[in-house]
Amino acid sequence: MSDRLDLDLRADLSELARLAEAVEAFAERNNLPPDVAFKLNLCLDELFTNTVSYGYADAADAANRRIAVRLGCDGAAIQAEIEDDAAPFDPFATPPAPDLTNDIDARPVGGLGVFLVTQTMDHARYRRDGDRNHVLLTKRLAPKAPA
Question: Which of 41, 45, 104, 118 has the most CB atoms at less than 10 Å from its CB?
C-alpha cells in the first residue's frame, strides 16, 4: 500500500471523533471522492461502535482495551482493518437481511448497521487470530478518467 494510516484507539465511544478526523485527513491525502470518504467513515463508525458497545463485558472491561484501525490506499482500492481483543464475533456470518418494509417504529433493533457495511463495501470479511478479531474491508476506487 502506498499510503497508510495506523490508529490506536481506546475502546471508548469518545474516540469516534478522532477516528472520523483521521479518516477525513487520510481521504484528503489520497484525493478520495467525498462519497468514498463518507462511506468509509460510516462503516468504520458502525463497526467501532458495535465493538465498544457489545464486544466487552462492561464499560470497566472496555476501559483498558485498545482497538487498532488501519487504512491503506494503493490508488485502486482502500483496505481497512479493525483489530480488537473483544469477545469473538463475526458480524458477517450470514446476518439476516433487515426488514426494510415495516414502519421504522415496528422494526426490531439491530442488524441495519452491519447490513449497510456489507452493502457499502466491495468486500467485508472477518477472521479470528488467537485472541484478536480482525474485520477487513475493501472499497474499490473508480479509475480516474484521462485528463
Answer: 41
Nearest partner of 52 among 96, 20, 93, 82, judged by Cα: 82
Residue 54 lies in a domain: yes
Q: Is residue 26 part of a domain?
A: yes
pLDDT, tens digit (0-9, with 9 covering 90-100), for 70-97: 999 998 999 999 999 999 999 988 655 6
Residue 34 lies in a domain: yes
Element spanning 53, H or E: helix 34-54
Q: The whole model's pTM is what? A: 0.85
Strand partners, 140: 77
CA-to-CA separations, 106 to 17, 101, 111, 143, in angstroms, rounded: 31, 10, 14, 42
